[in-house]
Design goal:
single chain, mainly beta, Rossmann fold, UDP N-Acetylglucosamine Acyltransferase, domain 1, eight-stranded mixed beta sheet, six-stranded parallel beta sheet, 2 helices, binds acetyl coenzyme *A, repeat, transferase
Length: 200
């Protein structure tokens, strides 16, 4: 496995792999000032074997992760979860998706490519997460919720059952979402209110 990104997010992905006894081959990061990461060599250019070894994009920002994914020509690793995460056997997860320590993903949920289910987050039954979604630490996505591409649900936020959240939405930390949210909205508070719109 190659970890693409010697970042804080990369540290947690490193721990996920360690919990599964997977040793990264090396870390790839374009910052020439970073030469070592968790005792592993950091390379700054793709290597001869980069295209052959499955890589995981350790980039927390959803937009940047998508841009890198679109340019990355190597193999993408299958979804990987920390050994302490609880994932129903009926869950589908796209390649490049990571599930952090203590997260729960329940039955018949479908998660897209390159998503992040962060530490302690709960993604309930029959949820649909499109590609590049990030469910932040301790957020709760209840049953039958749908979340569009690139949206981030902030730390500790809650979404009530059946709500549809558009693409590239930012839900603020601690928000409580009780109604559908349109694309690109930035939403904060309890109950969640739209404060502005962002562009992808
Ligand atoms: C492992 C990890 O670390 S994973 C990282 C997880 N990250 C998160 O959970 C971050 C979630 N992001 C947030 O909550 C952000 O504050 C956002 C996306 C909602 C808004 O960010 P910005 O667009 O930069 O907005 P900005 O900081 O300018 O705030 C705009 C207004 O919203 C208010 N606001 C911002 N965030 C929140 C919030 N979470 N709850 C309530 N009000 C908020 C601000 O006080 C400000 O109010 P004002 O206009 O009356 O002064």
């Amino acid at each position: 496995m190659i970890i693409y990104g010697a970042s804080g997010h990369g540290k947690v992905i490193f721990d996920i792999l360690k919990s599964r006894n997977i040793k990264p081959e090396y870390i790839l990061d374009d910052n020439p000032e970073i030469t070592e990461f968790k005792g592993y060599k950091v390379v700054h250019e793709p290597q001869e074997n980069t295209l052959k070894i499955p890589g995981i994009l350790a980039i927390g920002d959803n937009t940047v992760r998508k841009l890198v994914a679109l340019q990355y020509t190597g193999a993408i690793a299958k979804a990987v979860s920390h050994s302490s995460a609880v994932i129903s056997e009926n869950v589908e997860m796209g390649d490049g998706t990571v599930v952090m320590p203590g997260a729960v993903v329940n039955a018949d949920t479908i998660i897209g490519l390159h998503c992040i289910i962060n530490s302690g987050a709960v993604v309930e039954h029959d949820v649909r997460l499109d590609d590049f979604v990030h469910i932040s630490p301790n957020a709760v996505v209840t049953g039958n919720v749908e979340i569009g591409e690139g949206s981030q649900i902030g730390a500790g936020a809650s979404i009530i059952p059946g709500v549809k959240i558009g693409k590239w939405v930012s839900i603020g930390a601690g928000a409580v979402i009780i109604e559908d949210i349109p694309d690109f909205a930035v939403v904060v508070g309890n109950p969640g209110k739209i404060i502005k719109y962002s562009n992808e």
